[in-house]
Fold this sequence. Notes:
The chain has helices at residues 16-29, 32-35, 49-55, 82-87, 98-103, 108-120, 133-137, 141-152, 182-199, 202-207, 221-225, 242-254, and strands at residues 4-9, 38-43, 61-65, 92-95, 124-129, 165-168, 209-213, 232-235. The chain starts with a strand and ends with a helix. The protein is of the alpha/beta class.
Amino acid sequence: MRRKLIAGNWKMNLSYKESEKLAKNITEKLDPKVMQKIDTLVCPSFISLGIVNKAIKDTEVKLGAQDIYYENDGAYTGEVSASMLKSVGCEYVIAGHSERRKYIHETNKIINRKVRKAIEFELKPILCVGESLEEREDEIFEGVVEKQIIEGLSEITKESMKDLVIAYEPVWAIGTGLNATPKQASDMHLFIAKVVSKLYDNEVAEALLILYGGSVNGKNAKEILSACGVDGALIGGASLKADEFTDIIKIGAQI
Ligand code: PGA
């Protein structure tokens, strides 16, 4: 069984000081023995990346950003570049989260540019894909996710795929308390692997980490993380509570 990845997406929550406190609480609760078996990262807001980087220094917890801009630098007010993220210690960056697709109207094309920029600067992109409730009910969800993957990975070489992670996050399960059944998650993870295998080959698909996201918490983590094809989780709400987040990491390490 491959090493799992548990990622916390703090979204637009926590002040600078609160972020520092949460990062410290998480690192204090993590047993180094557990950390030998699993990878973990936290994705605070841009303003807290620096302070969280300090708080997790000398631990196994890694740092990720929630977004990136696709230009190197210049007159792009409010945006944050890949080199800025690198300079505060980011190793990962989320691209194409459904909340950005919905509220900021990010398209597959924009998301693809972000993924390419991340790779150019040796940041590991976590490409988020997932269907809405309507798309699931209309039974077009596989096609929607396939398109997000094909367009999101446009011009990404086989070589770069080793540093890329895909997060399957059904939109209807994010922040709603609803979550996909282990079978639904498993089916989609295997489907995503099939799409990636068609785009590249079996070797790339087998090495690819596919995370599940959508209302993962301390209670359902074992069931979800045990599902076939689920290589970890991208966690929103439950990642804001040090006890619950570290419990999920422990559960992931035992599977
Ligand atoms: P949630 O968020 O765990 O609060 O549902 C997951 C995500 O959006 O990454």
